[in-house]
Amino acid sequence: MKKITLLFITLISLNSFAQAVFEDDFENETVDATTFANWISTDGDADGNYWEVSDVAAYAVDNAPNHPITGLAADSDSWEGAGFTPDNFLTTSSLIDLSGVSGTQISFIVGSYQTNGTYTDDLYSVYLSTSNDPADIINETPLTTRFVTEDAACDLEDGSNSAGTVSLDASSYDGQSVYLTFRHYDTFDMNSVLIDDVMVGSNLSTEDMTIENFKYFIDGNNQLNISSNNVFKNIYVYSILGKQVINQDLNNYSEVINLSNLSKGIYIARFVCENSSEKSIKIVLK
Fold first, then answer.
1. DSSP states of 204-223
2. pLDDT at residue 193, rounded to an integer
3. Distance of CA 51 to the CA centre of its chain
4. Alpha-carbon distances of 274 from 33, 219, 271, rounded to whole Å
5. What angle do CA 280, 283, 286 make, to 5 degrees?
6. In sequence order, what are the beta bridge partners of 250?
7. Cα–Cα distance between 151 and 148 in angstroms, integer?
8. Residue 112 and residue 161 in contact, taking contact as beta carbons nearer than 8 Å
9. What are phi and psi of 149, to 5 degrees?
10. Which helix (H) or strand (E) holds 62?
11. CB distance 150 to 144 below 8 Å
């Protein structure tokens, strides 16, 4: 059992790909298995907790009849009777061929079992990489690093707000062959990350997910200067281990973010604009 009792049902509809080169809804998996048909589940911290197959629909019957995830899903927990800190990798078992794809996009549903708006700060990152070795994957710049609650408030008793759709721009990987990884980490005693309906392809939506004319530089005072043709809405900065160190609201086409309080090292900055476009970059403070 999970930490909270759930209840009700609305459906999330995903936009169709004009070209889908990879998709998985996990419906052909075995419930509670830690092995997957199309994925490798790796327990990075060797604590015995892995990504596993969860029957969310069965759980929802008694607890959350309106949960948007209506079947099986991939599930990584940070609480299961007791709290722990996962470092779990779910990586495609084969390379995804993007050689014929222009404007690569990734879409998936992310959610939790929670329904009262608490225990929702499970952190995860999404990577594309040419290696399926976790030691190499963590050195890549993630496409995104975010908390479940950013896309699923999980605050309605019927469970109808306990999952949301995420769409990511991955066009910088056009023409390559890559592995896709979901990493759940740097979280203690929250609840879960549920992943479902993963799709990789092009023309995912009509919405422009790329920040137009994005530019940035770090000046001599460790001030991050950013500009674009879109109004910035938020910046999130994470350490290389996934710890969030900056969460700041923005409201202009150009902004200056003070990084001088951060220690020297490598960080991941994620920018979100008013049109829901976003971009993640790696920054190095010296």
1. --SS--SPTT-EEEE-TTSE
2. 98
3. 14
4. 40, 26, 10
5. 170
6. none
7. 6
8. no
9. -65, -15
10. helix 56-63
11. no
Predicted local confidence at residue 9, as pLDDT: 26
pLDDT at residue number 204:
58
Joined tokens for residue 173:
């990987």
- Cα–Cα dist 164/208, whole Å: 18
Alpha carbons 169 and 111: distance in angstroms, whole number = 20
Q: Is the pTM of this model over 0.85?
A: no
The three-point CA angle 195-158-2 to 5° equals 55
Q: What kind of architecture, by CATH, is found in domain 19-202?
A: Sandwich (2.60)
Q: What is the DSSP letter of 149?
A: G
> Which structure tokens are listed for 234?
């938020």
How large is the C-alpha radius of gyration of the chain?
18
* Token pair belonging to 274: 């008013």
Which parts of the chain register pLDDT below 70?
1-18, 204-209
> Residue 12's pLDDT is what?
30
Q: N- to C-terminal Cα distance for the chain?
A: 46
Task: Give the span between the Cα atoms of 113 and 4, in whole angstroms.
Answer: 7
Q: Residue 225 has what pLDDT?
A: 94
Checking phi first, is residue 5 left (phi over 0); if not, alpha (psi -120 to 50) or beta?
beta
CATH 1.10.10.10 fits 215-285, yes or no: no
What gap in Å lies between CA 261 and CA 254, rounded to an integer?
21
Interatomic CA distance for residues 110 and 77, integer angstroms: 13
Domain map (residue ranges) of the chain: 19-202, 215-285
Predicted local confidence at residue 156, as pLDDT: 94
Using CA atoms, how far residue 34 sits from 46, 192, 218, in Å, is: 14, 15, 43
The whole-number pLDDT of residue 241 equals: 76
